[in-house]
Amino acid sequence: MGIVVRDLVKRYGDKTIIDHVSFEIDEGELVSLLGPSGCGKTTTLRCIAGLETPEEGFISIDDAVVFDSANGIMVEPYHRDIGMVFQSYAIWPHLTVFENVAFPLRIRRRPAADIEQRVARALDMVGLGEFRDRSSQQLSGGQQQRVAVARAIVHEPAVLLFDEPLSNLDAKLRDQTRAEIRKLQRDLNVATVYVTHDQAEALSLSDRILVMHSGIIRQQGTPSEVYGTPLDTFVADVVGPANFLLVTVRDGATVLADGTALRAVGGGEGVAMIRPDRLIIGGASDNALSGTVRQRLYLGGHYEYLVAVGPSLLRVLSSVTVAEGAAVTLSFATADCIILPAITGETTPWA
Predict the structure, then answer these.
(1) What's the pLDDT tens digit per position in 127-150?
(2) Are 9 and 33 in contact (CB under 8 A)?
(3) Measured between alpha carbons, how far is residue 184 from residues 38, 46, 149, 180, 205 in Å?
(4) Do residues 181 and 204 make contact, with C-beta atoms less than 8 angstroms apart?
(5) DSSP code, position 335
(6) Which residues, other chains included, contact 257 with Cβ-Cβ below 8 Å and sequence gap of 6+?
(7) Helix (H) or strand (E) holding 329
(8) pTM of the predicted model, to two decimals?
(9) What's the helix, strand, coil split of the chain in %, to 5?
């Protein structure tokens, strides 16, 4: 077993940041903690790393207990078998690339020949072998990020921890590095926790996603599960772009406020969720809504439209070219319209 977290609780004063969180990550599995700022995802990661001390709970790494509140166990970070990549990279500017990567081995007092071999292998894995003697101040942001990854893997840890490692990179480099991290993690076959607020990162990288909100896990599952069958509007909105329409039940049918009937998955009063890429401009399907194009944005391979349907504005992604102001029909399948519960007391994404 790679990582086990049970009933983890972390408080700052009287504020509970993590509220009895439990999950397990198998060897070779990459699990993303996804959620907005303040949801507890980075604090959870820091508790696993030993950089935060929880008030309650249990954590084991590769079957070694590193925290157990019931038995008074708290293993220091440098005694935990982890490799961690920080958001800021934490590269030492006065050291060369080689010395930055060698640091975890030097503090473990590994022989010089072993350090040479391991650092060379780690740098080759991240494509920086030829940069070993370069000053870290001469590196681009993407190269610094690779140095941070090489340093995290050089001592062959049991688990890898990533804290939003791509947030400082531009969009194109982010996409490239994301693929490189996934390939590297698969090659190493280690349990990995990846913290992000970026939907695309979580969906593309993960074997499983844990969606966090207010210190709890709201939903967990494969990317296709949490994207395609969210449990509520919060998860639907966090995992990807979504349209929400209030619905009610009349004479046994699910209907919008104007009485338009919907064929949907699920039933009862609540919110109909439809992904923007599942709305078809024109065509024929199970459902059809009439609207007017209010805005059109060209995104290269497709357009992004805002279509007014009654009092609502629906986001639509389509390769069809339609002028602003045009009347359109949006069609969509029953399977792409999911009725979710309206949750009392929360800020709703359609408000």
Answers:
(1) 899 999 999 888 888 889 899 999
(2) no
(3) 29, 22, 10, 6, 11
(4) no
(5) G
(6) 246, 248, 310, 311
(7) strand 327-332
(8) 0.89
(9) 30, 35, 35
Q: Which of 214, 215, 178, 173 is nearest to 194 (CA)?
A: 178
Name the CATH topology of 3-228: Rossmann fold (3.40.50)
Token pair, residue 183, equals 């390939």
Q: What is the largest CA-CA distance in the chain?
A: 79
Mean pLDDT of the chain, nearest integer: 92
Tell me: the pLDDT tens digits for 273-315?
Answer: 999 999 999 988 999 999 999 999 999 989 999 999 999 999 9
Residues in the chain: 351
Helix (H, G, I), strand (E, B) or coil at 114: helix
Which class does domain 242-340 fall in? mainly beta
Amino acid identity at 323: A
Average pLDDT over residues 314-334: 97
Residue tagged 């399977």 (tokens): 335
Kindly list the domain boundaries of the chain, sorted by start residue.
3-228, 242-340
210-222: b (≥16 Cβ within 10 Å) or e: bbbbbbebbbbbe
Instruction: Give the residue from 249, 250, 260, 253 showing the smallest Cα distance to 310.
Output: 260
